[in-house]
């Protein structure tokens, strides 16, 4: 049932993109700048990462073959590997619900999308799917954070709500190594 809900949600996104034409791309098609404001529709405000065509999507990491994990933060308004960003993230049930949360960008998927792993402040000591990365500026309460290395997302640059922080190179390297061991991806650190 959850899989069919995901298909329905994707079809709805496509339909809304056709019904509401007129959204323009940035002048540089190679690397459009992220829009940090909420997009509006006729009746409602849509959270970045949830809007048709720019929605954050859950992806099966086992289906990704040639991902190169290379540290490349650049505080330019666009998400880059090594940056912690905030976006709307769908729940695992993929039933249309979700929440705004921090994710760690790990690599580029295309000119408009990046791969990211979700973060949580809920303790996951001893859980092989989570890696502790300590605290940082992405959490105003200074809580310890964990990266979920089992859950991969595709985030559109226009789905970015805000850049929260840059993870330092050693911690990004630990995450990259864990992902490389698990999925066989190339980790440049």
Describe the structure using short key phrases.
two-stranded antiparallel sheet; SH3 type barrels; alpha+beta; 7-stranded antiparallel beta sheet; 189 residues
Could you give a short description of this structure?
By secondary structure, this protein is an alpha+beta fold. The protein has helices at residues 2-19, 169-183; strands spanning 39-40, 45-46, 57-59, 68-69, 83-90, 98-108, 113-120, 130-134, 145-156, 162-166, 186-187.
Helix and strand string, N-terminal first? HEEEEEEEEEEHE
Helix share, percent? 10-25%
Shape: globular
Quick one: how many beta strands?
A: 11
Largest sheet: 7 strands, antiparallel
CATH class: Mainly Beta
Instruction: State the end-to-end distance.
Output: 39 Å
Question: What is Rg?
Answer: 16 Å
What oligomerization state is this entry in? single chain
Strand content: 25-35%
Which residues sit in consecutive blocks of at least 5 with pLDDT less than 50?
18-43
- By CATH, the architecture is named Roll
Family: Belongs to the PemK/MazF family.
InterPro entries: PemK-like, Plasmid_toxin/cell-grow_inhib
Pfam families: PemK_toxin
Keywords: Toxin-antitoxin system
Describe the structure.
It is a single chain. The chain has 189 residues and is of the alpha+beta class. It has a single domain, classed as SH3 type barrels (Roll), CATH 2.30.30.110. 17% of the residues lie in helices and 32% in strands. The protein contains 2 helices and 11 strands, in the order αββββββββββαβ. A hairpin with a 4-residue loop joins strand 1 (39-40) and strand 2. Keywords: Toxin-antitoxin system. This is PemK domain-containing protein. Belongs to the PemK/MazF family. Pfam families: PemK_toxin (PF02452). GO terms for molecular function: DNA binding.
């Amino acid at each position: 049932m959850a899989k069919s809900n995901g298909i329905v949600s994707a079809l709805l996104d496509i339909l809304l993109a056709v019904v509401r034409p007129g959204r323009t791309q940035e002048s540089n098609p190679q690397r459009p700048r992220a829009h940090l404001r909420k997009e509006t529709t006729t009746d409602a405000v849509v959270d970045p990462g949830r809007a048709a065509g720019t929605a954050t999507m859950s992806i099966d990491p086992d289906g990704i073959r040639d991902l190169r994990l290379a540290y490349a933060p650049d505080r330019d308004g666009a998400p880059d590997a090594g940056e912690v960003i905030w976006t709307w993230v769908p729940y695992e049930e993929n039933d249309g619900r979700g929440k705004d949360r921090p994710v760690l960008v790990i690599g580029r998927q295309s000119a408009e999308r990046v791969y990211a792993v979700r973060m949580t402040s809920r303790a996951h000591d001893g859980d092989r799917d989570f890696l502790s990365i300590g605290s940082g500026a992405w959490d105003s309460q200074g809580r310890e954070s964990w990266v979920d290395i089992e859950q991969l997302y595709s985030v559109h640059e226009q789905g970015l709500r805000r850049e929260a922080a840059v993870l330092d190179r050693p911690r990004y390297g630990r995450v990259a190594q864990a992902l490389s061991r698990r999925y066989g991806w190339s980790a440049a650190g």
